[in-house]
Amino acid sequence: MDVFEAIRGRRSIRSYRREDLPEELMIKLIDCARWAPSAGNLQPWEFVIVKEDSTKKALARAALGQYFIAEAPVVIVVCADQRRSGWGYGKRGVQLYCLQDTAAATQNLLLAAHALGLGACWVGAFDEEEVATILQLPKGMRPVAIVPVGYPAESPPPRPRRSVHEITHFESF
User: Fold this and answer.
1) Least enclosed by CB within 10 Å: which of 46, 105, 133, 141?
2) Taking the domains of the chain in order of start, what are their residue ranges?
3) CATH number of 16-153
4) DSSP string of 77-144, one letter each residue
5) Is pTM, for the whole model, over 0.85?
6) Can you say whether residue 117 is alpha, beta or left, with left for phi > 0 and alpha for psi between -120 and 50 degrees?
7) Residue 85 and residue 104 in contact, taking contact as beta carbons nearer than 8 Å
């Protein structure tokens, strides 16, 4: 699958077949995520792979009751090491760059999942403190995205997009 097909064909999948994901596919997803660009090449991302049902259910509750998360065979939580970004960039690294970097890694993960025939969904609505507690994250490690992954049990159509002309500005706004 070429990159343009992956970008246009990827969908947020919220329904999964009851089929385990081989470990080599999980590692391949993380490998693709780690190739994302990062400020100063600091690579502030960490990935927590969750397969335990009770932990997935706790994450779903922390994600404001988005229970489809618990139905996925695997949930990957993308975390930002704020200290790592802070080393190189101080306050801006802690507050912004680590989030941008982990967002890029999350997008790589989603595109790789689609290219591998998997379904995934970027979940950003959750109680950060609760997720940090559930996963026993150390201080300075911020959960940024919860990504349930599995073989899709749905094939949603594309969602509408604003036109290129509506969102593009040359030289100034």
Assistant:
1) 133
2) 16-153
3) 3.40.109.10
4) EEEEEHHHHHHHHHHHIIIIIHHHHHHHHHHHHHHHHHHTT-EE--B--S-HHHHHHHTTPPTTEEEE
5) yes
6) left
7) no
Q: Would you tell me how many other CB atoms lie within 10 Å of the CB of residue 162?
A: 7
Q: List the pLDDT tens digit at each of the 173 positions of the chain.
A: 899 999 999 999 999 999 999 999 999 999 999 999 999 999 999 999 999 999 999 999 999 999 999 999 999 999 999 999 999 899 999 999 999 999 999 999 999 999 999 999 999 999 999 999 999 999 999 999 999 999 999 999 999 999 999 999 999 99
Whether 140 and 82 have beta carbons less than 8 Å apart is answered as yes
Contact predicate 102/44, CB 8 Å: yes
Place of tokens 């025939």: 117
Indicate the length of the chain as a whole number.
Answer: 173
Quick one: residue 65, left, alpha or beta (phi over 0 = left, psi -120 to 50 = alpha)? left
Query: Distance between CA 11 and CA 166 in Å, rounded?
Result: 23
